[in-house]
């Protein structure tokens, strides 16, 4: 099992219910492909480094999870097409 971190930037216009739904969906993808979610770190609404789709802010979340090497690839396939996700990045954490 490898350790990974998924950084998500969500649309700043989402309501609390919408943010929770996105996070539950992403957690579901991680567990569906054999991973386990360790921690979700909520950084709140922050200014983006540059404008994306005429947006200047976004909700930042960092999800730490464990899984085989195929898990991040499978999760990215679904996160990529999620409407509220502005940007995402999965990195492998060194032990």
What is the CATH architecture descriptor? Answer: 2-Layer Sandwich
The largest β sheet comes out as: 4 strands, antiparallel
Give the overall silhouette: globular
- Tell me roughly what share of residues is in helical segments: 25-40%
The proportion of strand residues reads over 45%
Uncertain stretches of 5 or more adjacent residues: none
Concise summary:
The chain has 95 residues and is of the alpha+beta class. It has helices at 16-32, 71-79; strands spanning 2-10, 36-52, 55-67, 85-93. The protein has a single domain, classed as 2-Layer Sandwich (Alpha-Beta Plaits).
List keywords for this structure.
four-stranded antiparallel β-sheet; Alpha-Beta Plaits; 51% strand
What does this protein look like?
The structure is a single chain. This protein has 95 residues and is an alpha+beta fold. The protein has a single domain (2-93), classed as 2-Layer Sandwich (Alpha-Beta Plaits), CATH 3.30.70.60. It contains two helices and four strands, in the order βαββαβ. The protein has helices spanning 16-32, 71-79, and strands at residues 2-10, 36-52, 55-67, 85-93. β2 (36-52) and β3 (55-67) form a beta hairpin. The mean pLDDT is 95.
